[in-house]
Design goal:
This is Catechol 2,3-dioxygenase-like lactoylglutathione lyase family enzyme. It comes from Amycolatopsis thermophila. Residues 8-123, 141-259 form the VOC domain. The chain is an alpha/beta fold. The chain contains 6 helices and 17 strands. The protein has 2 domains: 6-122, 2,3-Dihydroxybiphenyl 1,2-Dioxygenase, domain 1 (Roll), CATH 3.10.180.10; 141-299, Roll (2,3-Dihydroxybiphenyl 1,2-Dioxygenase, domain 1). The chain is 20% helix and 37% strand.
Length: 312
Amino acid sequence: MSQHLITHLRHVDIAVPDLARQRDFFTGTWGLTEAHRDSDLAYLAAEGSPEQYVVRLREAPEKRIDLIAFGAATVADVDALAGRLATSGVKLIREPGLLQTPGGGYGFRFFDNEGRTIEISTGVAVREHRRIEEGESIPVRLSHVVINSADPEGTRAFYEKHLGFRLSDILMHPRIGEVMYFMRINSWHHSLAIARGPHPSLHHASFEMRGLDEYMRGTGRLLRAGIEKIWGPGRHMPGNNTFSYFLDPHGNTLEYTTELEIIDEDTWHPHSYDFSNPEVSDQWGTANAMDEFVTAKSFNDPDKGLFVPPPV
């Protein structure tokens, strides 16, 4: 696909068995704000983001990713993407039309190659948001989403061919081969990354903090609250962003980050980083070692929602 019609990452929607507990964690500990509520749904916004919400929670018997949502600039772009996907044999879940979610807009849904539900939309009303002040240790925006894939090469090819994603960097290991693809849709180093895993699932969702001080304050605040830390604090080499990974109440991995690299499209060339070099995973050398425990937590549970669209 020659035209880059997707503009940005909008939100990630997660289903969990205990909505109240998950909502309390995201609003009381993680730093999001409940912007809308509808029976068994909670729409959570980041105070610094114009998006109506960056996380949607839904109560369901089993944990799953409900969908990952991306934005487009115009109705014509949404229609063009839907038409190209349908022509290429990609299954549309919902034809382009008016959205019934907060902020309205116009969009459609489809399954990706492994059965995740993806939404593309435009024209969603801008939420009243604010500048995050110095020292505030709450997320500014949703930074990126990383998915586990049993076929990372095929998943990368799907997002490049059908959605116009571009490869920023590759993470590799001498014994395993290529283990992660960092994919971009704008000047941010990555909005989506695809990790090699035993099954499709959520690897982690990452939230951008105001700066280094706020990132460290947030990391410390969660540690003091007794939230289980998986990995960090440290700074990755691909993307040059900081990282602190924690587990939410349902075993999903969430990240505080900041200073994700902004790249120049005209001069950027993808790098292949050797993950066996400790500085690649953590330039500072401050994080705990990446070991089997961290890896197992990142694999998460197999997603129960593949090729099954969420009910709302």
